[in-house]
Amino acid sequence: MIKIDQKTDEDGVIMMSVHSEELKLHHEHAENVKSVSDREITILAIESSCDETAAAVVRNGREVLSNIISSQIALHTVYGGVVPEIASRKHIEKINYCVTAALSEAGKTLKDMDAIAVTYGPGLVGALLVGVSEAKALSFATGIPLIGVHHIEGHISANFIENRDLEPPFVCLVVSGGHSHLVVVKDYGEYEIIGQTRDDAAGEAFDKVARAIGLGYPGGPKIDLAARDGNPQAIQFPHARIDDAQYDFSFSGLKSAVLNYINQSRMQGQEINKNDLAASFQKAVVDVLVEHSMRAVKEYGYDKLAIAGGVASNSALRAAMQHACAEQGVKFYRPSPVLCTDNAAMIGTAGYYEYLKGVRSGLDLNAVPNLPLGDRERRFHVM
Ligand code: KG4
Ligand code: ZN
Prior knowledge:
- The protein is α/β, with parallel strands linked by helices.
- The protein has 13 helices and 14 strands.
- A hairpin with a 4-residue loop joins β3 and β4.
- The chain starts with a strand and ends with a strand.
- Residues 26-35 and 378-383 have low confidence and may be disordered.
């Protein structure tokens, strides 16, 4: 069971410490890992790509010794979305606290770290820069190697934390506020993107629809909640399919259909049932995500499917995917909801597998807001 200790600062920032005895130690697995690297590897991980400032200490890739998340969501809610300047400023205020708390909760000091892993893209440039600068400064001051991690690689790797048996290859659906990717994880750090969104990301569609029906930001969790009291069959929304790219997604047509429905209802003086609307919209998104993922697993011949990213915490998506996988005899993996949304433990896990491959970043590591997945920058060298 995952336990979350939570407190809110006077400025509205929520500080969370995520623990679980199960996450902490798994001797059996630690033994497996040692056979790969022949000694324990402990990594300090930092994440600041959007509106969460986070730091974690991860041992041997899958043991989370500490996982500190400082969420600014409440500060951005009043603006209906993330305000980049506010995000950067809050990251600067919170990052040292998060790093110190992560080390002390893990019972470690910087000297115990084998590497410092940090998200360097994609994300908001000003937000990314805070984590990257922190990690570079710590690396420069201590001589501890630096490893730049791709944010999506982090989301995918969140699946390794609680699922000790999960090893590549498998198919992973990555659905977050900025991405909707269907990825074949061929090996650790080796990805083939087989489908992606043509327009809005899944989380973006949730956020925009929630705003349109007055549920507020962030929309995903609010729609998830409202949909529990709604009828998913109440309104038939379109399920976009793209003929020449069967694994690609498109959510902007669905979003427009929802907006049209709202406008028409208003013009006709009809009251909108928000719960039915939320449930029907959510079903349209979930149906497409499940259909594409199951087709990919089947056609690529894999027997494992994982989901990742903020939208992977959606209860309807988790239930529908679980059901579809059980029917097709596919093993289904998903992180706990708190590990689906942004956190640094997932960055530590991804960083560990990069570390084993000998990947190191130079002190010229920079934030790359639109960093493509699987595209190693020249500043990396594999030892
Ligand atoms: O992965 P994440 O924390 O940040 C990005 O990398 O984008 O994802 C945030 C996104 C937001 O769009 C949020 O509305 C969505 O994930 N989200 C959800 C749920 N929880 C978060 N969407 C649907 N259902 C949820 N329960
Ligand atoms: Zn994310």
